[in-house]
Amino acid sequence: MKELQKIVEEFIKTFGIKWDVTVKVHPGIRGCQIVSFAGRSPLHEILINTRPMLGQNLFDVAHEIVHALFAERIDPLFSGVMFNPAHESQVDHSMRFKEVEIAQAGIDIWINRLREEHYPGMMLEDVDAFAKAVFPRIMQGIPFEQTGIVALAVFIAESHGIGYGCSAIESRLEGKPGKKVRALANLFESLPNLEFIRDKDLQKLQRLVQKVAQILEFAIRPRIVEHETGYHVWTY
After folding, report:
1. Positive or negative: CA dihedral 217, 208, 166, 121
2. Which domains does the chain show, CATH number per domain?
3. What is the CB neighbour count within 10 angstroms for residue 223?
4. CA 219, CA 144: separation in Å to the nearest integer?
5. What is the mean pLDDT of residues 43-61?
6. What is the pLDDT of residues 183-197, one digit of tens each?
7. What is the SS3 assignment for the chain?
8. Mean pLDDT computed over 201-210
9. Residue 55: pLDDT above 60?
């Protein structure tokens, strides 16, 4: 845990994180994830599963720290999915929440671009690890759910960006799921960089999530609104 904390502190320094950061071991999750809390005492909470060898977690930890940076410099919505509380009582809210969460995963393109600027070569490690994990599933013809379709699209877009050979995987993407992966990958490759200007970047995020939801054929058109608390949240 001490070694992990040291690594986290290095990333915090590299990316200039200002808010407090806590790290908690959580064996029930895959890899790691972050939750950012704005307010009087802003905080980032990193949950990490340390069962794999620590080195396998490094690009994931750096990825989450960039989420923290975006939360601070743009808006906490870049660190996680937040909804208008009025939706919580709706019967279909859990399904809609999941759909927006899946559609918002395209943020990873922006996250990993900035990570690569500070740690060149880390994206190669990331896509290579993904390819080794997913290739056996594709060879066996195991179908991918919507989450996997987005993850494959991010992988292909990033592979193209760094010249990583992924044709063996692309050539096996067939049918309607394959068309969705290719459409999303094209979208992700064309994303303009963020400007760290709150209103403009929130607009880019909204357009991205709406387009991903459309490609995945979700029956929602998510919009970002400012809640009475002053926070930005999703509504649909």
Report:
1. negative
2. 1-73 (3.30.2010.10), 84-236 (no CATH)
3. 13
4. 20
5. 74
6. 999 999 999 999 999
7. CHHHHHHHHHHHHHHCCCCEEEEEECCCCCCEEEEEECCCCCEEEEEECCCCCHHHHHHHHHHHHHHHHHHHHCCHHHCCCCECHHHHHCCCHHHHHHHHHHHHHHHHHHHHHHHHHHCCCHHHHHHHHHHHHHHHHHHCCCCCCHHHHHHHHHHHHHHHHHCCCCHHHHCCCCHHHHHHHHHHHHHHHCCCCCCCCHHHHHHHHHHHHHHHHHHCCCCCCCEEEECCCCCEEEEC
8. 98
9. no
Model pTM? 0.92
The encoded tokens of residue 53 equal: 């060898």
Which position has the token pair 């290719």? 182
- Structure tokens of 65? 């720290």
